[in-house]
Amino acid sequence: MREEKVARRYYVSGMVQGVGFRFFAQGAAERLGVNGFTRNLSDGRVEVYAIGSNKSVEALREELERGPRASHVSKVTEHEAEIDPRYAHSFSIEYDA
76: which residues sit within 8 A by CB, 6+ positions away? Predict the structure, then answer.
């Protein structure tokens, strides 16, 4: 039986830009079977939009709270989101924020 898909939007604060955070998020998402995207925001945060099973997006949040070695994550906020079919089949790094 397949788990129902959910979508979450995470906003990661701290020293998270210029340290490979988006590539870290992409790698973690792909390992966990999560689709969506990540991008830098102009206010210094990183946004991660995640689609997957509840268990897999929760596991991704745990990875985001840890971050890559060069980062320092001070906070991860989470918001429920609608599933956007444009991002439902892969995980990408976006550059338009």
Answer: 10, 11, 12, 13, 61, 64, 65
- Give the active site residue among 22, 35, 45, 61: 22
Counting the structural domains of the chain, the total is: 1
Are 61 and 8 a contacting pair, CB within 8 Å? yes
- Length of the chain, in residues: 97
Report yes or no on whether pTM surpasses 0.85: yes
- To the query of whether residue 22 is one of the catalytic residues in this protein, the response is yes
| pLDDT tops 80 at residue 1 | no
Q: What is the dihedral of CA 65, 53, 42, 18, to 10 degrees?
A: 50
- Has residue 44 been placed in a domain? yes
